[in-house]
Design goal:
alpha+beta; Cytochrome Bc1 Complex, Chain A, domain 1; 4 domains; seven-stranded mixed sheet; six-stranded mixed sheet; 32 helices
Amino acid sequence: MASAMLLSPAAVQAQQAAPTVSVAVEPSAPQPQYLKPDDPWIYRGTDIPVDKEWLFGEMPNGVRYAVRRNGVPPDQVSIRIRIDAGSLNETDDERGYAHLLEHLTFRQSKYMAEGQAIPIWQRLGATFGSDTNAETTPTQTVFKLDLPNARPAALDESMKLLSGMIREPTLSASNLAADLPIVLAEKRENSGAGTRIAEATRSTFFHGQRLADRAPIGTIKTLKTATPESVRAFHQKWYRPENTVIVAVGDVDPQQLAALTEEYFADWKVAGKAPAAPDFGKPEAPDDAKGPNPVGRTRVIVEPGQPRGISYAILRPWEQVTDNLEYNRGLLIDGIAQAIINRRLEARARSGGSYLMASAQQRDVSRSVDGTFVSITPLGDDWQAALHDVRAVIADAITTPPTQEEIDRELAAYNVAFANQVEQRALLAGGQLGDDLVQAVDIRESIAAPETILNVFKNMRDRFTPEAVLEHTQRLFQGTVVRGALVTPVAGEASEADLRKALNHKVEADGNSRISAESISFADLPPIGEPADPVERAPLGVLGSEKITYANGVKALIWRTNNEPGRVTVRVRFGHGLQGFSPEDAAYIELGQMALVGSGLGPLGQEELDRISTGRMLGFDFSIEDGHFTFEARTRSADVADQLYLFAAKLAMPRWDANPVERAKAASTLSYDSYNATASGILSRDLNWLLHNRDPRYATPTPAQIQATTAEGFREVWEPLLKQGPVEVMVFGDIDPDQTVAALSRTFGALPPPTALPGDTVTELDGFPAANDDPLILYHQGDKDQAAVAIAWPTGGGSDRLPESRKLEILADVFSNRLLNAVREKEGASYAPQVGSNWPLDMNSGGHLLALAQLSPANVPAFIQEADKIAADLATNGPTADELALVTGPMRQLINRIQTGHTFWMNELAGATIDPQRVRHLPSLLNDYTNVTPEEIRSLAAKYLVKDKAWHLAILPKDTAAANR
């Protein structure tokens, strides 16, 4: 097992070459009795080869379990406990009970005192909300624990606690009274236009089925009328051994995991016979149905401020399948069929069609419906044209076979994805493996090893013929009934009859969106420039990484790792980010985020970029930070050189296609009004801008500002920014260092020298807003019971005080724990209040501590009062040693886990070739985060949590504005 202490950078390199050591179970440890290696329950009735890494057991009481050894991340065990009951198991009077019970289970149970779940798991090294969590869906409730540093005592205690939670939660009146406000707060904070649209669409698509009106959150009426007796009855009915599956995956002998599972669950008994699951229903054709695909219910949903959207579904009854190899071969052909249609739909949108985006996807929904769902975002108010154009593309796909070249293009993408899964199967995190198995149980199917999936795919390549894909496409668009929904911001724009007529209207097949599948070779692309060898290649001094310097000023960091086979990350930092823009050009910032990559490079437009990536693992993420721009991609060893070419070519020979810019303008304009619909929307739109003293470069541009931009202006603003230095390239992962340097020399070493940003165009970003005792008030146009509040204190920035910035994160976590306890656990006023620290490394100022919550308008003053009270107490008295340990313990475990991946070190060393402070402060990282004292935190709080410097914001419903006039 790996050490529980943070490894030094040198030790990390040594660990990667060390063999894995298996720790056997001590002879005295209990042995599992109910493992069934010859009869794995999840594979019964299927010819799918058994994944031998899993061990399956089944206890006499009906509890099934699966265990597996997995060392990613080291020392962690992930446990999932699935109850085969969700919101579809509720009666009309019980709506919301499955989710409410999920909350109560964490409140108090046999081995856990009231309200102690969060500190108990924190003492065991797990963070609340990420390492310990649960989810309720229509068909299941799943409890999740990712336990770091899973030593025998901690693992035993965790399984014991979980068994008490599942088997014997304390469903008392006092606990119900404590948790009900939290659940209602969650419902309130997740309500709004988006939720109303989802509910209306669900009730339309699944009319006549339980799924139509049983969202897991429930209704206010049923939640408020819940009693301990009624909730207990739901628990006794569904929380039973035969409804329970336990999955445990981690860096422990699986025999030990099986024995622990049996120890705490084998004696679980519930009186009586398990009830049969209710009939979930099935989609029915309308009474007057004639011909194929009859159109049934339609719905027009009017939501002011929301962009128009069309969705329709071709629905079929869900049926329990025999999950065998042949069934999965059929799914693979289905997948190719959908990929071809979606590529054509995207091509139509890119060419200036009537819609911004559209997609078609087959989904099995909650064991209730097998459906093909089509979603469309019209460009303007002519929703009928958008619907017609999308249906015309689909009509072509179901009448004429695709070309073999189209099929082969999608097959190449599948092949690289499946091969990559095999190559990187050793990197799969235990939590993901557990989630995958739980999902398989939920949909009543089996699981397959990556090798099995790849072999099935390769051995059926001759079945991907145009005729077969056409047949599967036709099946995907045949159903019992078609139902549709239209979202519009304008009342009276359309009726349900209008939508039904449009869906019934016969369209002619349109094959103009069929796109060439002709391959493009990197060998045919122009060179970046004259290759240049590095002028310096030397060790950086940490991790065994190397620093590469070229004569043109480009610097690079490369680090070869051997614990992540095939996985490589390439990151390019260049220019000055937001500081490189003038305030007058601020609207082009958002457009650049959306359109810069799509506008192409050299001879490659957006379609050609897609085509050249066929059969490769290439990416092109782009982000804009305070002081730099970033290109980034997760790739593989074989594609590193091509990935470097794409990034360098974007800097050396950018292309300026207008269509991506016009599409970005349309997307930005369509979404703007929706921000006003909720308090959280206002926060998303305005908070960063306000925290930077209304600097236009942090603002979300208005539709008028966007419409004033042009494709020519886009080029004028962005072209010089792509030429500016400094340029830093990082290549970390499973690489050959010499080959990587050679690829760098052909690409970034061949660039012309980056230009320096003229001093008179470096515009400093505005600082923090002036302190205010009375909050700045903004108003949203959504539900009257929704509000949000933010309190911020200015801190600092820059890499010279990196240790202080890390300790500020600890202060924020302590503050967050106190706020969570006061505002959520005790008062139920907010579902997820939080405190965070922002410290920009590229600037010497601009940082802040921020306390944030969504709540009801009536609770805004109390939140501000409570946050101010906590801030003052931390500044005066600091945290106790115990509450500090509740933060630093999980932080230590988090660092232990994430440091084993190369992206952790890439993040820590980003900018190190330009700024030596980042290397200088790297050795103190663990100490800064975990060996901090209460006095240090008190001192930081006294320095920064100053009442006279605090800035307050409240976002209230517009009705409040009228009341205040």
